[in-house]
Write a structure and sequence with these properties.
Elements (H helix, E strand, L loop, with lengths): L11 E7 L2 E6 H14 L6 H28 L4 E7 L2 E6 L5 H28 L7 H4 L6 H16 L7 H10 L5 H26 L2 H27 L4 H4 L7 E2 L4 H10 L4 E6 L2 E7 H10 L6 H4 L6 E2 L5 H4 L9 E6 L2 E7 H28 L1
Parallel strand pairs: 2-3, 5-6, 8-9
Antiparallel strand pairs: 1-2, 3-4, 6-7, 9-10
Length: about 375
């Protein structure tokens, strides 16, 4: 459930609302659902029974993510959306929870599965079905409840592994962050996660278990992503949008043609162009919008019909770490205004360059400090 303050995951096919939170389904989610139903059908389990089990399994995952969202709401953190993917769910929060908040927000998901598993176990025993290893060896329509009970308990325990991107990694980081910086806590948790991934990969290779190899790769990528995100957050600490924004840029006029925009795209290294009608900014023409317009309308079309009128706006004195969340989900550029006057642009490329340069400056300063200590 890493926070992604803006934008949407591409490839969405269908959505519902649960507890006031939009739940969107990635198209690959439906592919894996169909594949699992076909795979699970046969023997003593019918297609309907397989569909019910898969529906119950992914409903458990959805309730897991809803647990994160509801706990985050208690701390005043909104949830932009929950995205259902083949590997599970993803709750996109509006901001990164603080250490104490992250513990409970992360722990809420496994807790939901734990109580759900206990409730289903009770239902299985109450109906006289019970739980047995044979239920997993030979799935049937009669043991769906018991299998869902065990699946929820396994889901809770698996998510408590102390490794990113599982909830256990976030729980561990929140505990470490009580006495260390957020970046240091993330690095320690990422190293632990990398170690777990290495052990899983070794075990998967020895047993020729491709599922373990896939999970190991999943954990390793999650550890690297969290580590890089924490480093970026630390580098942006205390910085303002003004520090990283582009101030030397070109603009387009409301009456310019697509041909004019294409020529400007080729003549400069700029990818996004503010569109002005007199002194007023009326839209933003990105490279992708320009190419689509060139294909559909041709070079004679007008910029006004191709530009994005719902562009992102930022204040130059806004916190850079919070503003950086705008650049996600396909959004590559935000315009910076001061008293309704366009003063700059914050792009994903320029933000990356800012972070690289700041990292090099800090490394150089640390190197000079180390040399001075040796001289003393």
């Amino acid at each position: 459930m890493p926070p992604r303050p803006a934008g949407r995951v591409p490839g969405i096919a269908g959505s519902v609302t649960v507890f006031g939170v939009p739940v969107r389904f990635h198209f690959t989610f439906w592919l894996i659902v169909i594949w699992m139903i076909v795979l699970a059908s046969g023997g003593r389990q019918t297609v309907v029974g397989a569909a019910l089990f898969i529906f119950g399994l992914f409903s458990s995952v959805l309730l897991h993510e809803a647990g994160h969202a509801l706990m985050a709401r208690r701390y005043g953190i909104g949830t932009q959306e929950i995205v259902m993917l083949p590997i599970g769910g993803l709750a996109r929060l509006e901001r990164q929870p603080k250490a104490g908040e992250e513990f409970w927000v992360a722990f809420a998901g496994p807790l939901v599965n734990f109580f759900l598993g206990l409730a289903l176990l009770g239902a299985a025993y109450w109906t006289g079905g019970g739980v047995a290893v044979g239920h997993w060896l030979e799935a049937a329509d009669t043991n769906i409840v018991s299998r869902l009970a065990v699946a929820n308990l396994v889901l809770a325990l698996f998510n408590l592994l102390p490794a990113f991107p599982m909830d256990g990694g976030r729980v561990l980081r929140s505990l470490l962050a009580e006495r260390r910086s957020f970046e240091h806590a993330t690095r320690i948790t990422a190293r632990i996660g990398t170690g777990i991934a290495a052990l899983m990969a070794l075990l998967g290779l020895l047993q020729a278990n491709f599922l373990l190899l896939f999970v190991a790769l999943f954990i390793y990528i999650g550890a690297m992503q969290e580590s890089m995100a924490a480093t970026a957050q630390a580098l942006m600490q205390g910085a303002k949008v003004r520090d990283a924004m582009v101030t030397d840029f070109r603009t387009l006029s409301h009456g310019d043609t697509i041909r004019d925009a294409a020529e400007l795209l080729l003549a400069t290294s700029q990818q996004d162009f503010p569109v002005l009608a007199g002194p007023r900014v009326t839209g933003l023409l990105s490279r992708s919008h320009l190419l689509r317009a060139l294909a559909s309308e041709g070079p004679g079309g007008y910029v006004a019909s191709a530009m994005d009128r719902d562009f992102r706006r930022l204040d130059p004195e806004a916190d850079l770490a919070e503003a950086a969340g705008v650049l996600s989900g396909g959004v590559n550029c935000a315009l910076v205004f001061e008293d309704e006057r366009l003063t700059g642009m914050l792009t994903a490329e320029n933000l990356s360059e800012y972070l690289v340069l700041k990292k090099l400056r800090e490394a150089r300063a640390a190197g000079k400090e180390e040399l001075s200590k040796r001289d003393v």
